Amino acid sequence: MASKVMKRVLSNHFLRRCFCSVDNKITTAGIIVIGDEILKGEVADTNSTFLAVELHLMGLKLEKISVIGDDVKAVCGEVRHFAGIYDYVLTSGGIGPTHDDITYEAVALAFNQPLVLDPLLKEICMKFYNTTDVKYPGMKLAYIPKTSKLTFSDGAAGLKMAYPNVSIKNVYMFPGIPELLVKSFSNLKGVLFKSDKKFYTKSIYFNITEDKIVAALEKLVKEYPNVQFGSYPKLLHRVYKVKVTIESCCEESTDEAYNKLMTLVPRQYIVNIDDI
C-alpha cells in the first residue's frame, strides 16, 4: 500500500515538474511573406508552409504569418511590429534586382538605418552579373541595411552558400523563390535559429464526428492546461472522420493525455492508424 502511495506521489511530483518546465518561455517566430503576386493569387505561397513545418520541428513556436504587398512603408511597419514581439522574424520575398524588390529597403527603414554597399556582396554580385558597374540593376542585392550580418554557412564542413542570408538583429531575410529559400534555410537553420524545446505530438483517429468527442476533449483541456489539443474533421475520408492531435513540450504529459483520451472514448470509435 505504501509503495503504491509513494509511486502516485512521485508521479504527481514529476508531472508538476514537467508542467512547470513547459511554462518556461517557448522561443517564438513570425513569418512575413512579401509580394503582390501572393496577394493576387498569381503565385501560390509554399514558403510559409515549408518554414512552418521546419520551425515546428526545431521546437520554435510560429505565432503568426503575415502577407504584405510590395509597399515599403507597409513592410517596414510589419517588420518593426514583428521584431518587437517575436524572438525570430523571417521574411520571404522582395530580394532581387527589380523595382518591386523592396525588402532590404523596408527592413533598413524599420531599424532607422541606411542602405549601404556591402563590399563582400559587391564582389559576389559583380561576378554573378559579370559587371563592374555599381549602378547595374543586379547590384541592388549588394545594398543592405548598415549593420546587417551575413551568414554563408553553418560553420561545419558543409555547403557554403554562394549568396548569404542577410539578417539584422532578429530579422532574417530569405529569397522568395521557393527553391532558393529551401536551400538557404536548410543549410543555415542550425546556426541561425536556436531553441531548447521540442514538441511531442501524438494523434488519434476517430470514426465518429467531432460533436461526439467534445465532452472528452473539454475534460482533457481543463485537466492538462499545458497540453495543446487539436481537432481536425475529415469529410470524405474512407476510414476516419476526425483526427485529434495531442502536443506539448513534455513527452510524459503528451503520453498521459493521449492515454487518457483513449480511455474516455469507446474503443470501437477509435481507428487503427494502420488502416489509414
UniProtKB/TrEMBL annotation:
Name by which UniProt lists this protein: MoaB/Mog domain-containing protein
Coiled-coil segments on the chain, per record: none
SMART domains listed in its UniProt record: MoCF_biosynth
A Pfam family matched in the record: MoCF_biosynth
Boundaries of every MoaB/Mog domain copy: 30-196
InterPro entries: CinA, FLAD1_M, MoaB/Mog-like_dom_sf, MoaB/Mog_dom
Record lineage: Eukaryota, Metazoa, Ecdysozoa, Arthropoda, Hexapoda
Highest taxon of the lineage: Eukaryota
Family: In the N-terminal section; belongs to the MoaB/Mog family.
